[in-house]
Amino acid sequence: MDWRTAEAVVKCLEIDVDFYRELTVFLMKKHTKILQDDLDWLTKSLNDEQAFLMKSRSLEEKRLALFKGLGIGDKKLSELAEDAPESYKPKIKMLARQLTEIVDNITELNSETAEIVKRKLDSEKEIVDRAGIVNKPETYNKNASKVAGGQPTAKAFRNV
Known about the structure:
Blueprint: H1 3-35, H2 39-44, H3 46-69, H4 89-131, E1 139-140, E2 146-148, E3 151-152
Antiparallel strand pairs: 1-2, 2-3
């Protein structure tokens, strides 16, 4: 790896580290809002979350294309510094370590958040089941047939 390739790798890793730090902040806030049952914030943040997802995909596609173009597409993040010029090794190692830690933190945070959401949904389902809310009251459909729990109980209502 020459110095130009090392410069490109450093720049790419810096962009990724900055982005994933920003994503981590957003995900931590989302985690907190889930704990607080702040559905209003969660609903409003869906566009932001979608934008993060799209930017993440875009950055990864660009990184893959760049590394392939530089001839290092087959290298793992931990291997990048090995072939770099001596003056770039510490910087690339540091950025690779930071990126690995941030991604690991995001993975753990997402796992914890998913578990909290699952427990909350299971709890809500249990409350709904106990309250019998799932059992629909008897109503009538557009044909004036009696409907109980979503199923017609009479074939038809006689016309008078």
